[in-house]
Automatic annotation (TrEMBL), chain A:
It is found in: Cell membrane. It is a multi-pass membrane protein. Gene3D superfamilies: MetI-like. GO terms for cellular component: plasma membrane. The keyword Cell membrane applies. InterPro entries: BP-dependent_transpt_permease (IPR050366), MetI-like (IPR000515), MetI-like_sf (IPR035906), OppC_N (IPR025966). The lineage of its organism: Bacteria, Pseudomonadati, Pseudomonadota, Alphaproteobacteria, Rhodobacterales. It comes from Paracoccus onubensis. This is ABC transporter permease. The keyword Ubl conjugation does not apply. SUPFAM superfamilies: MetI-like.
From TrEMBL, chain B:
It comes from Paracoccus onubensis. GO terms for biological process: peptide transport; transmembrane transport. Belongs to the ABC transporter superfamily. This is ABC transporter ATP-binding protein. Keywords: ATP-binding, Cell membrane, Membrane, Nucleotide-binding, Transport. It is found in: Cell inner membrane. The keyword Repressor does not apply.
Length: 281, 604
């Protein structure tokens, strides 16, 4: 099983960009999971005497205006970011696939769904998300719902386009003439062949969601918990930017590297999920 | 001076082209040598993967430089093309050597007018001004016999039919009066009657310009029509070369013999009444067994498919396409009815209607005693078991993500015909019935060749034990030898299961071989229908006559198609919304042989 897995991902490992992306992402995910074990300080531990310390051996990333350790806070913030982004990807994928397949496979539904998607995409992403959060009230769940709805059209469009192409493929027509029920046709034949574009697009949505969550937090309409997020860290660090740039630098770098790793991964995944590439072993 | 005249236009010596693969350099053609004189046509013939196109691309140096390596000498009038710079080579391409490709639909740029694209080559290679170039473009279009050239100069490619586009491509290739014309499968994508015109055109132009022509094709019929000399290639090696007449009359190599034996030839049926199997050819000895006639054992019974007054129309914003008009026929168990005609004649639409992939506008389609024209949902799903379809493109008709065993199993399980373990056994049986090994069930479609995939599609179609199989150009995309094998398989399965086939094809020589009856479609209508022998020996409708006359005959001593009749441009099937289709009368020529009484083809 493991050797089969290794064989499958070998072409992916040949791509250096993908390997770098995977290493960064794995680090971020592991750090988030193991946060209580690896952080040197509690994320919310105040220590006014140590406020605004530059990076040093005791505080690798320095401390903030309340003397909290920035490294510890950045690691804990990654938990919220990953959680929100994962939720957004799952929600927007489910919504996007349902809408996209429906629009692509059933001509009668195409116009209403496509116009709805157009309408949604005509709003700037972050504005739509802010409006939805404002309507639903800020919390972890509402941020996920708001961003999930915001990014659903991105997936829906890709899925619709691919479904339109697939619907005309002889093997889908063959499945129709074999008398397969529509449910099986969609789940087995259409969805299976959509896996690759969905996966690739989902990776990019993951990256966008991470960025959007940070933006919402920065603007003060994000996840309201007492836990830090990269966005809130940026927002509060802004006032000290001239004197203590590390307050913004490290959460900023965390965002950049996480998003970059996902983008690199997305490019490589596109090729992996295609079984034709495993032909020559 | 004399020396120069004796020099061949193109001499290729010991050409070896290798591609870079993961395992290092791998030669795809080995040690190919040939030459072409002025005014001469050399055909390179071979099946897919034989390296014939690579030979042409090597000559033009059109292969990607980092992935390919060309060795040997390619002498164009004594100048070695492998030694000159890329800039010099650009002047050779389109200047000294013109090239036409297989796919006329995609080789013209859709956003420029025809005149513009022609003129561009002239400005570039013959340093004309745009005004001069435009005048010359018009002259070229007249030379390739494009009607109303002056008006069409300013039209865009989408307004041109496939045959007309190929004429434009030829005009482009000729723009700089090349000494050598390379034609890579130039007529493969065209209908037979159009093919005949294009071949004639190339030959006439060759005579006028005293051009050398390198003709690449898989079609031995075309070779026999056009080539002075022929070079047979097989898996990258030169097998045999010589005068075309000699090669056809007296092939020395087993592969050439095999290739020649497996070509479907029009008029090779003798006095057989039923279909005849293709001869089985041993590739190593080239010895062919005689193709046996299939004897039909089942008595005439009730038809399994009965189509009456079928019409299919598509509404457009500005009119209506009458794709199928008033088509009626019956199909009996164990019988093959071939539906023939050119692209756009409605034959595929008719087949799709029988599969209910297309809802008919009017008419009835009885399968057994159920009219499927108007049912849907569960009832339709159940009825789908009795009719199955085999598609043209073996690379697109299998889901790339599903193992072939699962693909064959799926319909049996979905219709709850048997348990999983029974289905598994049946998959093994079906695979061996179509000549594949049962342990291939665990493989994915991309691990198979085109011919094998078509066998898998056939196995899948048989999974539900249908009574009717609609074969839409099922063997058209296959190489000659594979085509013969798959056709034989279809014949054997028919005999074994008493299957009825609706065999949709444009390939008259295959149709002649495997059908009991033939229906000729033209512009959405059946213009002639009858027993195979009656249609081929005594065609009554002018269109049928033209269709049969246009088929290239693989016999250089009988060059037949070089005098085509005045060919009407294909008329548009788009009609005004209020168009009422005329009622047609049919005349019975002999028992079961009906021909449409109408002057619309004769007058065209």
């Amino acid at each position: 099983m493991i050797s089969r897995f290794l064989v499958t991902i070998r072409p992916l490992l040949r791509n250096r960009a993908v390997v770098i992306g995977m290493i960064i992402l794995t680090t971020v995910v592991l750090a988030a999971i193991l946060a209580p074990l690896i952080t040197p300080y509690a994320p919310n531990k105040l220590s006014i005497v140590n406020k605004l310390l530059p990076p040093s051996a005791g505080h690798w990333f320095g401390t903030d205006e309340f003397g909290r350790d920035i490294l510890s806070r950045a690691i804990y913030a990654g938990r919220i970011s990953l959680l929100v982004s994962l939720g957004v990807v799952i929600l927007s994928t489910i919504l996007g696939v349902i809408l996209g397949v429906a629009a692509g496979f059933f001509p009668r539904l195409d116009t209403p769904i496509s116009r709805l998607l157009d309408a949604m995409m005509s709003f700037p992403d972050i504005l739509l998300a802010i409006a939805l959060v404002a309507a639903l009230g800020p919390s972890l769940v509402t941020v996920i719902i708001a961003l999930g709805i915001t990014y659903a059209p991105r997936l829906a469009r890709i899925v619709r386009g691919s479904t339109l192409v697939l619907r005309e493929m002889p093997y889908i027509e063959a499945a129709v003439t074999l008398g397969l029920p529509t449910r099986q046709l969609l789940l087995r034949h259409v969805l299976l062949n959509l896996a690759s574009p969905i996966l690739v697009q989902a990776t990019f949505v993951f990256a966008s969601a991470m960025l959007a969550e940070a933006s919402l937090s920065f603007l003060g309409v994000g996840v309201s918990t007492d836990m830090p997020t990269w966005g809130t860290m940026l927002a509060s660090g802004r006032e000290y930017m001239n004197n203590a740039p590390w307050l913004m630098l490290f959460p900023g770098l965390a965002i950049v590297f996480s998003v970059l790793s996902l983008q690199l991964l997305g490019d490589g995944l596109r090729d992996l999920v295609d079984p034709r590439l495993t032909k020559e072993r | 001076m004399n020396d120069v005249q004796n020099q061949p236009i193109l001499a290729v010596e010991n050409l070896t082209t290798s591609f870079h693969t993961r395992d290092g350099w791998k030669p795809v053609i080995r040690d190919i040598s040939f030459h072409i004189d002025a005014g001469e046509t050399l055909a390179i013939v071979g099946e897919s993967g034989s390296g014939k196109s690579v030979t042409a691309l090597s000559t033009m140096r059109l292969l990607p430089r980092d992935k390919s390596r060309i060795e040997g000498r390619i002498l164009l009038e004594g100048r070695d093309l492998l030694k000159i710079s890329e800039a010099e080579m650009r002047a050779v391409r389109g200047g000294d050597i013109g090239m036409i490709f297989q796919e006329p639909m995609t080789s013209l740029n859709p956003v420029f007018t025809i005149g513009n694209q022609l003129a561009e080559a002239l400005v570039l290679h013959r340093s004309m001004s745009w005004r001069e170039a435009e005048a010359e473009a018009l002259r070229l279009m007249e030379r390739v016999r494009i009607p109303a050239a002056k008006d069409r100069l300013h039209e865009y490619p989408h307004k041109f039919s496939g045959g007309m586009r190929q004429r434009v491509m030829i005009a482009m290739a000729l723009a700089c009066r090349p000494k050598l014309l390379i034609a890579d499968e130039p007529t493969t994508a065209l209908d037979v009657t159009i093919q005949a015109e294009i071949l004639l055109l190339i030959r006439e132009l060759q005579k006028e310009e005293n051009m050398a022509v390198l003709f690449i094709t898989h079609d031995m019929g075309v070779v026999a029509e056009v080539a002075d000399r022929t070079l047979v290639v097989f898996r990258g090696d030169m097998v045999e070369s010589g005068e075309t007449g000699r090669i056809f009359a007296n092939p020395t190599q087993p592969y050439t013999k095999a290739l020649l034996a497996s070509i479907p030839r029009l008029g090779s049926m003798g006095d057989a009444r039923g279909p005849r199997r293709f001869p089985e050819v041993d590739l190593t000895t080239g010895i062919a067994s005689e193709g046996l006639e299939m004897v039909r054992t089942s008595p005439e019974t009730k038809p399994v498919v009965s189509v009456s007054n079928l019409s299919i129309r598509f509404d457009l914003p500005h009119g209506r396409i009458h794709a199928v008009e008033n088509v009626s026929f019956q199909l009996h168990p164990g019988e093959t009815l071939a539906l023939v005609g050119e692209s756009g004649c409605g034959k595929s639409t008719t087949g799709r209607a029988i599969m209910r992939l297309q809802k008919p506008t009017k008419g009835n389609i009885f399968i057994g005693d159920k009219d499927i024209a108007d049912i849907s949902g569960q009832e339709l799903r159940r009825l789908r078991r009795s009719a199955q379809m085999i598609f043209q493109d073996p690379f697109a008709s299998l889901n790339p993500r599903i193992k072939i065993g699962d693909a064959i199993k799926e319909p049996m399980l979905s219709h709850r015909l048997m348990s999983r373990s029974e289905a598994k056994d049946r998959v093994a049986t079906l695979l061996s019935q179509v000549g594949l090994s049962p342990d291939m069930a665990e493989r994915f479609p991309h691990e198979f060749s085109g011919g094998q995939r078509q066998r898998i599609s056939i196995a899948r179609a048989l999974a539900l034990s249908p009574q009717v199989i609609v074969a839409d150009e099922a063997v058209s995309a296959l190489d000659v030898s594979v085509k013969a094998q798959v056709s034989n398989l279809l014949l054997d399965l028919q005999a074994e299961h008493d299957l009825a086939y609706l065999f949709i094809s444009h390939d008259m020589s295959v149709v002649e071989r495997i059908s009991h009856r033939v229906a000729v479609m033209y512009f959405g209508e059946i213009v002639e229908i009858g027993p195979r022998a009656a249609i081929f020996d005594n065609p009554q409708h002018p269109y049928t006559q033209r269709l049969i006359a246009a088929v290239p005959i693989p016999d250089p001593s009988r060059r037949a198609i070089m005098q085509p009749a005045d060919s009407p441009e294909i008329r548009s099937p788009v009609r005004p919304m209020d168009y009422v289709h005329p009622t047609r009368q049919y005349r019975e020529v002999s028992p079961g042989h009906m021909v449409q009484l109408d002057d619309h083809v004769g007058a065209a």
